[in-house]
Design brief:
- The complex is a heterodimer of chains A (about 625) and B (about 250).
- By secondary structure, chain A is of the alpha/beta class.
- Chain A folds into 5 domains: about 20-130, Glutaredoxin; about 160-360, Rossmann fold (3-Layer(aba) Sandwich); about 375-450, Roll (Ubiquitin-like (UB roll)), CATH 3.10.20; about 455-540, Up-down Bundle (de novo design (two linked rop proteins)), CATH 1.20.1440.230; about 555-615, Alpha-Beta Plaits (2-Layer Sandwich).
- In chain A, α10 (about 225-235) crosses α11 (about 235-250) and α11 packs across α14 (about 345-355).
- The longest helix of chain A is centred in the last third of the chain and has 18 residues, at about 475-490.
- Chain A is globular, with a radius of gyration of 27 Å.
- Chain B is an alpha+beta fold and about 250 residues long.
- Among the domains of chain B are: about 100-160, Arc Repressor Mutant, subunit A (Orthogonal Bundle); about 165-250, Glutaredoxin, CATH 3.40.30.
- In chain B, about 40% of the residues lie in helices and about 10% in strands.
- A 5-stranded mixed β-sheet of chain B has the order 4-5-3-6-7, with helices on one face. A two-stranded antiparallel sheet of chain B has the order 1-2.
- In chain B, β6 and β7 (about 225-230) form a beta hairpin.
- Chain B is extended, with a radius of gyration of 25 Å.
- Classes of the chains: A alpha/beta (about 625), B alpha+beta (about 250).
- At the A-B interface, α2, β12, β14, β18 and α18 of A face α5, α7, α8, α9 and α10 of B.
């Protein structure tokens, strides 16, 4: 070993405090997921209940209670696992904690009726590894999520975090790091999605000595929470990835854009940065190797237009988030006019794995000609939502049906909305395509069932882009506004002949005549639904009918006199008081005063409330 | 009074004329085949002078940056008393305590975090962006007030006026949309007696939409002040408003 290697290793040994490690492999511990979704469903109370119960039994020395990051299956929260046996409990309530402590912790056997039930067989599944949601995944970037305490740098180091960085410092060959990242095929979702490695190389070509590393966890599109999950569950992976980027391109400053709404992610990252500075992993002359680098956090409200790199940089500089024309690309003149590399948090979190395990190993994780893995946030009308990491090239059907469990019971999968307002809506018949070709710029996968009106969905998505656009380019500023007006007209039952052609034309102009990622893609949902769901548009325009029964102007509520048992529940709950009928007799809705609030349909225990649409299906008359 | 009549005369004189604009895209003007459109400065026929005021807005906003404004001021205009203007605008918002601003500005000067983040912290501290605070911010950071205002007014997430006692935010993400958020929003509007997003007449509640909160599992979600309510229904929306009213003693 060279003298440099010894010095760096000695400095790194000083960073690590083994005594502070809370999660050693094989030790007895209760892991409670404390990420946003689980916290929202009451994980804090469950954690306190475990601590109280263990203290009451005098077991607090033998068992630790650790708050971990996200396990991924967010719909099942709060999630608890008991290690080292790996027993997995979904939807834990404080009331069931004493039984888990008595039987699993003390008795060593699972509490059968609290276990996860296999959706197909109905049998209990004891181990987390056997839950179908986790079974189909390949977790490289999220390997430590849900296993370590994200608030402890020692936990992270005990699981080999910062090892890749230390080894790169010792080898002292920045070019090798860039080569590895380039060969691995790692891609970023920001801006024009592309190779991370080639961006790093281009940034090196610039004439300036000062360079910047920018990480964005902004995730402007709805339904995306992959970056947030990484920051919440394993913030040190992102920091290490940024350190490696700084080492590779010789940057001294890094900026992370986090969403203010994601308070937990911001707090985790802030805490991790403080620990890194205290231990000398950030700051001047890191580990005595001559590299100086620090990271600042820029917390702002989400902006969809920041999907464009130049808009993001303008926003980070404190200006309006307005994109600019390229060239020069951000790798040439970005943040403060200096060469800048921009990537999303998930991409940075993958860098340490690549540097440690080699570019070939990462590339081989993908299927067929695809490289690496992709992280998605799966939500919507699906049985198991959450954060999913799968090999690149996996088909959409596999993610939605095998991992997500398909549509909810009794419903039919209609479409999958990928990539938010700038993405596409795929019909259920087209799910065989590899997932990463479709969702290049975003992590969001929203599953839609037969209760979604695709025309209204297009209106909803376009309204987001229209509101979020910066207004620089005329085709986007006027085009999205006018398209939105046409769509509003259609869902309001005032569609005209030729509206579909107008929408297609405006959408095409908008995608051709604009500068940035937002304008270029804002019409995607409209153009896609026009192509794949033309029959729904036609039903709205020519028949004044909403096939999904969603558009308020086109539907009426009625009560099926055959099915109504006269329980009076709907009449009691109706806020407009337009439901009448005697107890035990079929009830009737006075359509003239009905506000179509849907409460009667939701409260009816017999499913007697019907939603009808269109002149061809007359509303059931039903006289009392 | 005379001024109003003069303006009215102009309005009336325009009434019998045909509109100059057309309703694109339904109506389109026939353009010459190879027309690419040309921009030129309009000359006022009465004075024979260019109507351009050299405000440089076109130069700033041209997406392809092909406009250069080169000008000399030919009028000798009286200087506007900017200080008096600023004082008047300040007076409209009453007294604002600037002490919560101190740690925010100190933090900004120390770490150099971006303006968006600073404005966010100011809004967290005051509930909105008071003009006095923005002026102080401009004074201490050297960022011009117009730039601060530009950034603040860019998105609907910054408020320039004080909000109501309670803020109810309905998630406008796609997942919540598919799970019935529009019905929940409608129910909230009905319960609050307002037609669109905004503040109730008594200043009790501000209803707004909020971008995806990332709590997509138990959709749809509604945030009341700082608390997130999951799996909302129209019925629970009515109950929520009722609870707020009861808690506040408003009937």
């Amino acid at each position: 070993m060279s003298e440099r290697a010894d010095r760096i290793e000695a400095a790194f040994a000083h960073v690590f405090h083994p005594s502070m490690v809370s999660a050693r492999e094989g030790e007895q511990e209760v892991r409670v997921c404390a990420a946003t979704t689980c916290a929202g469903s009451g994980a804090g109370a469950v954690r306190d209940a475990f601590r109280d119960e263990l203290t009451r039994r005098g077991l607090q020395q033998e068992w630790r209670v650790v708050e971990t990051g996200c396990r991924g299956s967010c719909d099942q929260g709060p999630i608890v696992s008991v290690e080292p046996a790996g027993v997995f409990y979904p939807r834990v309530s404080p009331a069931s904690v004493p039984r888990i402590v008595a039987e699993t912790l003390v008795g060593g056997r699972p509490v059968e009726d609290l276990l996860y039930r296999h959706p197909d067989t109905g049998r209990p599944v004891a181990r987390a590894a056997d839950v179908p949601f986790l079974l189909g995944q390949r977790r490289l970037v999220l390997a430590l999520a849900g296993r370590i305490d994200p608030a402890s740098i020692d936990d992270a180091i005990a699981h080999e975090r910062y090892r890749a960085f230390v080894e790169a410092l010792i080898a002292d060959e920045p070019d090798d790091v860039i080569d590895a990242v380039e060969e691995s095929g790692l891609r970023t979702r920001v801006g024009d999605p592309g190779s991370v490695g080639s961006r790093w190389r281009r940034a090196l070509d610039g004439t300036h000595d000062e360079r910047f590393v920018v990480c964005t966890a902004d995730e402007g599109d709805p339904g995306a929470f992959a970056d947030r999950t990484v920051l919440e569950s394993d913030p040190h992976a992102v920091i290490e990835g940024m350190l490696l980027a700084a080492f590779a391109i010789g940057a001294r400053h890094g900026v992370v854009r986090v969403r203010r709404d994601h308070a937990a992610a911001g707090e985790r990252l802030r805490g991790a940065l403080v620990e890194c500075r205290e231990r000398g992993l950030l700051g001047r002359d890191i580990l005595g190797a001559g590299l100086s680098f620090d990271i600042e956090i820029d917390a702002a409200e989400r902006m969809l237009v920041c999907a464009d790199e130049t808009a993001l940089i303008a926003s980070l500089e404190g200006r309006r988030a307005v994109p600019r024309i390229r060239p020069p690309a951000p790798t040439e003149a970005g943040f403060r006019g200096r060469p800048t590399v921009v990537s999303d948090a998930v991409a940075y979190a993958a860098v340490p794995w690549i540097v440690r395990n080699g570019a070939a190993a990462y590339a081989a994780a993908g299927l067929h000609e695809h490289t690496g893995t992709r992280v998605f946030s799966l939500s919507g009308q699906v049985r198991n939502g959450g954060v999913v990491e799968v090999p690149a090239g996996t088909s959409l059907r596999r993610v939605v049906e095998d991992i997500g469990g398909g549509a909810r019971p009794g419903r039919r999968l209609k479409a999958v909305q990928i990539g938010g307002p700038l993405g596409v809506c795929l019909p259920a018949t087209a799910l065989e395509a590899p997932i990463d070709d479709l969702a290049a710029g975003s992590s969001s996968l929203v599953v839609l069932d037969d209760r979604t009106c695709m025309v209204d969905l297009a209106r909803h998505l376009l309204s987001i882009s229209q509101r979020e656009g910066c207004g620089t380019c005329v085709p986007c500023r006027l085009g999205t506004k006018r398209s939105l007006e046409i769509l509003e007209r259609i869902v309001d039952g005032r569609g005209r002949d030729g509206d579909m052609e107008l929408l297609a034309e405006l959408g095409t102009y908008c995608s051709q005549g604009t500068l940035c990622v937002l304008g270029g893609n804002a019409s995607n949902p409209v153009l896609g639904t026009l192509r794949d769901f033309a029959d729904e548009y036609e039903a709205h325009i020519t028949e004044r009918r909403c096939p999904a029964g969603v558009c308020r102007a086109l539907i009426t509520y009625s009560i099926d006199p055959e099915a109504c048992t006269g329980c009076t529940l709907c009449a009691q709950r109706c806020p407009a008081a337009v439901i009448s009928g005697r107890e035990g007799q079929p009830h009737v809705i006075d359509v003239s005063g009905c506000t179509k609030c849907d409460i009667c349909r939701q409260v009816c225990p017999d499913g007697a409330v019907r939603v009808r649409s269109g002149v061809s299906q007359a509303v059931a008359p039903g006289t009392a | 009074m005379l001024g109003i009549l003069k303006a009215l005369r102009t309005t009336v004189s325009h009434l019998p004329r045909k509109p100059l604009t057309v309703q694109y895209p339904e109506v389109r003007e026939e353009l010459p085949e190879r027309s690419r459109g040309l921009f030129k400065v309009v000359v006022d026929v009465t004075t024979e002078e260019a109507r351009c005021r050299a405000c440089t807005l076109c130069e700033t906003n041209c997406p392809v940056q092909v406009i250069r404004v080169d000008y000399r001021n030919k009028y000798d205009l009286p200087a506007v008393d900017q200080a008096a203007l600023a004082r008047d605008r300040l007076a409209e918002q009453g007294a604002v305590d600037l002490s919560p601003l101190r740690p925010i500005i100190d933090g900004h000067l120390e770490s150099g975090t971006g303006l968006n983040a600073v404005l966010q912290r100011v809004q967290d501290a005051y509930g909105y962006l008071p003009r006095a605070a923005l002026q102080q911010l401009s004074l201490e950071t050297g960022t011009s007030l117009s730039q601060i205002y530009g950034t603040a007014s860019f998105s609907d997430r910054f408020r320039l006026a004080p909000p109501a006692a309670h803020i109810i935010s309905v998630c406008r993400g796609t997942t919540c949309y598919a799970a019935g958020a529009p019905l929940v929003a409608q129910a909230l509007r009905e319960a609050l007696g307002i037609d669109a997003d905004g503040t109730t007449a008594d200043g009790f509640v501000t209803l707004q939409s909020v971008d995806c909160l990332g709590v997509c599992g138990p959709a749809p979600v509604v945030r009341v002040d700082d608390r997130v309510h999951v799996a909302m229904t129209p019925e629970r929306a009515h109950a929520l408003v009722q609870e707020l009213r009861v808690a506040e003693g408003v009937t």
